[in-house]
Amino acid sequence: MPSIEQLTCFVVAAESGSFSAAARQLGKVQSAVSTAISNLEIDANLELFDRSSRSPVLTEAGQMLLKSAKTVLHSHHEFNAHAASLSSSNEASLCIAIEQNVATPILLTVLERFANTFPYITLELLDPGSGDVAELLRSNRADIGLMIQQEYYPQGFSFRGIGHSRVIPVSAPDFPLAQMKQVTLADLRQHRQVVGRSLDPDNQMHERYTLSPQVWLSESPFVILELLCANIGWAFLHEAVVKEKLHSGELVVLDLVYEQADILQGIDLVWTENRALGKAGQWLLQQLQSLRFEE
């Protein structure tokens, strides 16, 4: 009978692409991950990974069993979370991580109702930068997260889309690109781009939004705002972040030739199955699920 530890090592190794990456994510030494997967292969009497190349690759049997392993782990997390919530009523405190790119005014009504409904519960609000909400949830630093959507989430995460955020190309009004009536992709590549990135060095999602060979990076969109106002470069920023600077005239929208429609990114409400939410947490999660971010 495979253990939860063996199945976890198998799933994380398959998703991360290597035993060493899985070990880092699970906080284990690589030998422990390798041993767990080897023992799982012995118990199953199957080879789950082809180790003939530099990085292990799932065999056909491994690909077929990966979904089953995820289902078992999902049921295990659900059981633990359900049992924990039944054994307690209200938690003493809750923590919400709200990515800086997500507009907060829409949350105020829900937070006011929470304050009135659960007056003795301490609520902590974190405002991490681009891509860092998931890590706060994975490490159990936060209970619930609001973030710009990712392509995939780690094993044990649940999420629900609750709207969109508009992304706008901007610069200072006297920046060279702002002087052009229409800006081409080639024009963008000739000037420094300031890009938001995660604090996690392994998170390279920012690279897909990087167009210029001249790049500065920051985890804070508000630092990026100040850099743009200082005429240091241009950037793609979320409307919630840049709205005030556009209204004041400190920044302007670049007119891109190649982008005729609005650039929209989804906003996700995220939580983990292995983080038990009590009565207050379940109430807050349900209220947040009813929100709709539309810009």
TrEMBL record:
Pfam families: HTH_1, LysR_substrate. One of its GO terms (molecular function) is transcription cis-regulatory region binding. Keywords: DNA-binding, Transcription, Transcription regulation. Signal peptide: none annotated. Residues 2-59 form the HTH lysR-type domain. It comes from the Bacteria. InterPro entries: LysR_HTH_N, LysR_subst-bd, WH-like_DNA-bd_sf, WH_DNA-bd_sf. The keyword Lyase does not apply. The keyword Chloroplast does not apply. Belongs to the LysR transcriptional regulatory family. PANTHER family: HTH-TYPE TRANSCRIPTIONAL REGULATOR, LYSR FAMILY TRANSCRIPTIONAL REGULATOR. This is DNA-binding transcriptional regulator, LysR family. It comes from Neptunomonas qingdaonensis.
